[in-house]
Each structure stands twice: as C-alpha cells, then as structure tokens.
Design goal:
363 residues, alpha/beta, Aspartate Aminotransferase, domain 1, Aspartate Aminotransferase, domain 2, 4-stranded antiparallel sheet
Length: 363
Amino acid sequence: MAMSRQASQLEAAGRRVLHLEVGQPSTPLPVAAREAVRKHLDEPLGYTNAAGLQSLRRRLAGRYENVDVDRVMVVAGASAGFTLAFLTLFEPGDRVGILEPGYPCYRNALIALGMTPVPIPVGPDTRWAPTPNHLDTAGHLDGIIIASPSNPTGTVLGADALAELTAACRERSITVIADEIYHSIIDGPPAPQVLDHHPEAFVVSSFSKYYSMTGWRVGWVVAPDSVVDTVERLQQNLYICAPHVSQVAALAALDATDELDQHVERYRANKHLLIDGLAAAGITDLAPADGAFYVYAHVPQFTVELGIDSLELCQRWLNELGVATTSGIDFDLARGDEYVRFSYAGTGDDVGEAVGLLAGWSP
C-alpha cells in the first residue's frame, strides 16, 4: 500500500510509473454490465434488501452444490464480507489463524475488531499451503482463514489437500473462513470449492478481480445456516446494503464469461512474460503462481547481500526505474524482508517493459 501511494505521488509529479504492485485489472467493466447500468440509470436505484437483489442471489447460489439462496448475501466487496464474517463468528480475544505470507488486511481487520491474529508460517516445503501439522503448531485456534488461490503466492489447494485440511479443522473445532475471490483466475484445472469439502465453512468472494469490478465494491458471502440471520442483521446495521447500481452491474457481468475468460488468457500470457523476464534479471526462486495474478519471489541477492530489506529494494526500483512492486513485508512480518510480490494484472506491454528495466538494473 505504501508503494501504491508513492507511485501515485510520482505520477502526480509527472513521472511515468509501470505498475506491478497493485492487484487491479487494467480492463473496464464488462460490456454487458455497462449496458445494464445504462438501462437502469433513469430508474430509482435506492436501497435493496440487506441481503441484496434476489435475482443476483439466486444466480450466485447456483454456483454451488446444495446451497440455498437464503445462505447467499451480496456485500459491499470482500472487505465488507470479511468484517461481517469476523463479527459473526468470533468474539474479542479469539485466536484466528492467518497464513504468512498472506493478505495483510486479514490481520489488520482482526486486530481492529479486538481479535488475535495468529501467524501460521507456510513455505515452499508445502507449496506455500497450510496442512494439519500447521494447525497443531499454531496452538489453540478458534478459526482460520484459507485462500485458494492465495495472495501473494497464487497457490491453489487441490481437492485432497482441501479435504484433509478442512477435516482437521472440524476435528479441532476450528471455524473455517474461505477466501475464494480469485477462483476464476486459474492457470490450470479449476480450483476446488471449500463447500464441497466443508459445508459449514463461511465463504467470501467478490466481483473485483475476475469481473474487473474493483471500484464497484460488490461481492458476496455464503454463510452457514446457523448464522444467516446474524450476518443479515449486521449487514443492515453496518452497510444497509451493497450499492444497488453495483448489484445491477454484477448480475449482468455473470453472463460475460466469454469476454472475461479472454482476460484470464491475457493474465496467463503476462505470467509467463513476467517469469521469463524475472529469470533474465536473476530472479528465479518463485512461489507456484497457480492462480490469481501474482508472482511471489525470494530475492536475497538484492536484499540480504546488499544489506537492505525488500521495502527499501522496492523503493529503489520505484525511484530509479519507475517500476512499482510490493514488499513481502506487507504479507509476512517475519520473513517478508527477503521477498517481493509482482502483479501481472496490467498490460503485457507494461510487464515486458518493467522486467526489461529490472534486468538492466545495477545495484
């Protein structure tokens, strides 16, 4: 986040910046969604029910096996979904496992709500994925957040791994929250859904990434039957509802998969362009990048050997090359000083130019 702010400041001062730091598609709202929004702009777009438009909820429920529409609620983006999940499922002081490296807002939101994030370090020995052994090492947990594909590593949990992990959570009475916002951005077989293995998991998903709707702030949750009423009441009191116009756009976007799958093909091409370019820059120790649109790289040759951490490295790349990247410290407080995350959500031209600059950089 610090890098994005500094990059914006440089751009405001007239510098050109190549953005490999932000997980934001460079593509606009799908055509069908734009047309749907235009058709509704002359109509009242007031509050919807707290749970969202029934037509949208029905379509979202249909994405899962044996999920009743009452369990699905439209929310103001995944961030709101996580807040609702945390407030519904946990009490102040509860211990919630978060993977490191992992999305930093889990940690920050839990702390803000009075809960205790418990770091669970994962690494290349398990393809950056959690296992039952990690649960035992973490000590008592009231809950855990799992993401597949994950940010920043892109790791996808296969069906066997997901079944084993969720079974271990049930045995230990650990509540599971599943972040599935990158589910449709995969370079390989489809990512298994957590509900196929753990029907009582709390799922958070979003229209931001695959649907190119980051600024529209709309997503959804699938809540266990036992807490549906609580989630809806919290939604009503905290947010009233997700933005009506965004729900209109989201409903239409569900029918834009041909257009959106072309974006996924572009991400796939960008990934290979990025990996090849990083190799030319001497950066080859990478996490799997099965899905999402990130490459998480170990760069001790540019940190440890230079006597700097990855935050200073990213600042140097930004100031000296105009290439914005994200320090691993955002994702892993203990080990992130030797890691950098690169996003390939932008254009192929920008990715290619950025890695060319990195390859020619001299410390």
